[in-house]
Amino acid sequence: MSLRRTSRSVDGTIPISALLYTDEEIYASQDNVGIYEGTQKSPKHQAGTVFVSTHRLFYIDSQNAYKHSFALDLSSIIQTDHYAGLFKSSPKVTLYVTIAAGSSGQPTTSAGEGDGFESWECEVCGYRNPPGLSPAAAAICGLCGVPRASVPSSSSHRSDSLPSSAPSSTMALLSLSSPPSTESDSNACTACTFLNHPSLRYCEMCSTELPRHSPKLSRINKSAPSSRPPSPDPDDDNDPTSPHFIKISFRKDLEALMIKAKDMVRLAAELNEKLTAISAVPETQLLSSSIAPPEPEEATFIRSSLSQLGLQMPNAPVTLDMMKDEKKWIEQLAKELAQVLQGSVSVPRTNQEAGGMMKKRGIIALDEVWGGWNRARGVALIPPSTFLLVLPLLPIVTDPPIQTRAFASGLKVLHTPMFTHAAFSARLSGLLALTGPKTVTQVAQEESITLGLAEEMIEAVEGDGDICRDESSSNAIVGGGEVRWWANLFVGYTWDGQI
User: Fold this and answer.
1) Distance between CA 188 and CA 181 in Å, rounded?
2) Distance between CA atoms of 313 and 319, rounded to whole angstroms?
3) DSSP per-residue letters across 17-72
4) Which residues contact 76 (CB under 8 A, 6 or more apart)?
5) Predicted pLDDT of residue 499
6) What are the counts of helices (DSSP H) followed by strands (DSSP E) for the chain?
7) Phi and psi, residue 429, nearest 5°
8) Which pLDDT score is estimated for 205?
9) Taking a C-beta distance cutoff of 8 angstroms, is the pair 319, 306 a contact?
């Protein structure tokens, strides 16, 4: 009932600018809102637009703008509160309103009686004040500032609008519906309106026959005079201590927030790509183009802030301040390194770099991996100590698993299952048995690896006794040629020491 007792019905089909007072302006508006009357939803006000002006709050209903729209005077609001919403609960603004004493709870109209939409003449200076002013402005003269002597009420307005030569039938209806205030039992003449005694049949003044009052109508007039206020609504709460409030619910803000969140993710991705691109540009080019490169600390701070807001990008480097503990950080670094080595399966591979450093290579040195990973990160570079902590986790996060291997010379590499010691030894022994002796260069070309890696791996197979070297035919002893490698035909034999 707070809504009915404090609001004023308006015709929402009229443009909002035409509903304003002359001295009234619109401050803000919001669509897709609903109204709560107390703690319950108002069924007729669940889809509309709210306008806030200098004097009033308008609700224009979208489904039935003519019947369900209303205006609320800001002067009746004594307190406001707001709720930001959570999950599926929409944000709300609560308006605590005052209800004037003696308010009947019946809806009122917006135009007409005593609301400033009529002109009046000042009794002091004679200035005729124009219509359309707000009630506060219409209460004083616009020229001399003297308060208005009296404000016409609805009853006087209606009585003045009746013509003096009203027909007798109209006067009869008035006499039946509204008994005289001076004598409720008098019978008004339909011709001269003289109040006759109820027992008389003819008017004392003009001898006109008086209308007959039925006992039932008399009893109704006596039991329910026109001066009696309307019966209170059974749902109304007249307790002055009970709270009266109205809630404005912003129902579509959650969907709008999701749209904004997608925009924020897109902007965060663009920012991350720009930081990565600027970090990858050589310093000489930046100086020539007068572009100020971001400091590593600044770029790291930006990316970590985006991660804390839940806007971490798939290609954003992982930093320690993004994780709760160091263990989680090492695990995320292992996943990041796996993506650098093997590429991301969720992103379309448009070029070779998108497929990872080991897309076409089964073995690669650690120094090359460390340098390539830091170039991909751009900021928050990984030190060698942290790099070594990540390597044991690679077999868990890669497919096929990538292992670490150390040669006798101290060289460490990362390799796929195809380049394990056993797999390479079997493959090399079979090649030499089928095609004859091979040099290191020929083996490197066959395996698509570098000469240094080929030499390290061949010497490891030689240590197992599966192959043997031939230095006589190429003068390799004096540095005149390359060593040739043969398959060891004496595998399984034991030399007795005799020649």
Assistant:
1) 12
2) 13
3) GGGS-TT--EEEEEEEEEEEETTEE-TT-SSEEEEEESSEEEEEESS-HHHH-EEE
4) 6, 97, 98
5) 62
6) 16, 20
7) -65, -40
8) 86
9) no
Ranges assigned E (strand) in 159-216: 187-188, 195-196
3-state secondary structure of 390: helix
How confident is the model at residue 115, as a pLDDT?
Answer: 55
Amino acid 469 reads R
199 phi, psi to nearest 5 deg: -85, -15
Task: Kindly report the number of other CB atoms within 10 A of residue 218's CB atom.
Answer: 14
pLDDT at 339: 87
- Cα-Cα-Cα-Cα dihedral sign, residues 21, 27, 32, 37: negative
Tokens of 212: 């007959």
Residue count of the chain: 499
H/E stretch holding 405: strand 403-406
Which tokens go with 165?
A: 């030569």
The pLDDT value given to residue 109: 52
- Rounded Cα distance between 334 and 36, Å, is 53
Which residue ranges of the chain lie beneath pLDDT 50?
102, 107, 110-114, 153-183, 215-228, 231, 234-236, 241, 286, 345-353, 475-478
Residue with structure tokens 């307790």?
239
> Are the C-beta atoms of residues 430 and 438 closer than 8 Å to each other?
no
pLDDT value at residue 393: 92
438: tokens are: 């091979």
Cα separation, 147 vs 125, whole angstroms: 12
Cβ proximity of 74 and 272 under 8 Å: no
Tokens of residue 303, six digits: 């990316």
∠ CA 151-153-156, nearest 5°, is 115
Rounded to an integer, what distance in angstroms lies between the CA atom of residue 303 and that of residue 219? 85
Q: Which helix (H) or strand (E) holds 79?
A: strand 77-83
